Amino acid sequence: MGGSHGATDLSYDETIARLISDGYLKSDRVIKAMRAIRREDFVPLQMRPYAWGDHPLPIGCNQTISAPHMYAIMLENANVLAGERVLEIGTGSGYGAALLSFLVGKAGKVYSLEVVHSLAESARRNIAKAGLEASVIESDGRQGYAAGAPYDKILVTAASESIPPALIKQLKTGGKMLIPVGMHFQELLLVEKTADDVMIKTLLPVVFVPLVGHSER
Questions:
Q1: Start-end of H helices in 79-133
Q2: Are residues 116 and 147 in contact, defined by beta-carbon separation less than 8 angstroms?
Q3: Domain limits, the chain
Q4: Which CATH architecture group holds 12-216?
Q5: Cis omega before residue 150 (within 30°)?
Q6: Mind listing the pLDDT tens digit for each residue in 147-187?
Q7: 160 counts as catalytic
Q8: d(Cα 135, Cα 176) in Å, to the nearest integer?
Q9: Are 157 and 66 in contact (CB under 8 A)?
Q10: What is the pTM of this model?
Q11: Given 4, 21, 66, 112, which residue is catalytic?
């Protein structure tokens, strides 16, 4: 996502408290995850003073780390449970994968796809430093990751023109996917797969960086 940053950012505790009071953070499990995983550990050194402001920040390679409220929205709607198998499209800094790893616990598994080599490398280091585990794979996110399928949850953190069929196929029956769909501006969609259908609910308008493949880097 895009956005600006300034020197009058809220503190870590103030931002979490505001996300709770504004209704973005609701469940104890997601609140605990966001308290435990420090966002400043997943941004470039020069961005750390702004890490807990509620806005996106640049992380290099024309990519950003989304605002804290967007992580709250995605995680609350995904309802990621302990022991689940989760696919994230767009690792970026590794912050989202770390939050997911915390939520699924030791019994679960997180796969995260990142097309930019340098971001994948730094994400692996960031996740390891946080004491968490996630498999960061350098791959075109539009194709998903069939080797780890099927998934209980899929979270896409970059904008797609449409819902990639491969991701629908890799989602378990009863599973949920969150994906921003659109060009310059998107709608965040909640996709739920049933035994014989796919249910799609529009949650809210959003602005994410585009989902790109190897040929578009």
A1: 95-104, 117-129
A2: no
A3: 12-216
A4: 3-Layer(aba) Sandwich (3.40)
A5: yes
A6: 999 999 999 999 999 999 999 999 999 999 999 999 888 99
A7: no
A8: 20
A9: yes
A10: 0.91
A11: 66
